[in-house]
Amino acid sequence: MHRSIKVRDYMNREAITLSPETNLFKAIDVLLAHRISGAPVVDAQGNLVGVLSESDCLQGILNGAYYEESCGTVASLMSKAVETIDADADILQAAEHFVTRSRRRLPVLEQGKLVGQISRRDLLRALKTYNDHGAPKRR
């Protein structure tokens, strides 16, 4: 029996996203409410335009406190250079990406459009399931 090892089969298709216009503190509320460390940022057409991380949020708060001004919007703080992975990528490729680049989650694209997100935890579940059901185990 052939088992799929593609990102698409283990990704979260219900990724929590943010809008570039969202106020920083509203974005922080979303991250906290969903217990996530970051979220993809999409424009009105659904195009991936950035990622907002906990670190970006902390930087925004520090800048606001230091300069005694508003903390701004997601667009002013998000990382615009986004590392992504294709839905058809092998989960081992995703695991290697997480290890070598110290990422917690990656937006998943299919034909250039955001279709989900995969996290280190998703990969751990997938690899454990695969190992529990047929992969050779080292003794």
Give a structural overview.
With 139 residues, this protein is of the alpha+beta class. It has one domain: CBS-domain. The protein is built from five helices and five strands, in the order H-E-E-H-H-E-H-E-E-H. The strands form two sheets. Strands 3-4-5 form a three-stranded mixed β-sheet. A hairpin with a 5-residue loop joins strand 1 and strand 2 (48-53). Helix 4 (91-101) packs across helix 5 (120-132). The protein is elongated and about 50 Å long. The mean pLDDT is 85.
Largest sheet: 3 strands, mixed
Spell out the CATH superfamily: CBS-domain
Please give the count of helices: 5
What percent of residues are in strands?
15-25%
CATH-scheme architecture: Roll
- Fraction of residues in H or I helices: 25-40%
What is the domain total for the residues?
Answer: 1
CATH T-level fold name: CBS-domain
Could you name the CATH class?
Alpha Beta
Gross morphology: elongated
> Unreliable runs, pLDDT <50, ≥5 residues?
none
Output the structural class: alpha+beta
Tell me the Rg in angstroms. 17 Å
Q: How many beta strands in the DSSP annotation?
A: 5
Question: Termini, distance in Å?
Answer: 24 Å
- Strand order in the sheet with the most strands: 3-4-5
* Oligomer class: single chain
Mean pLDDT: 85
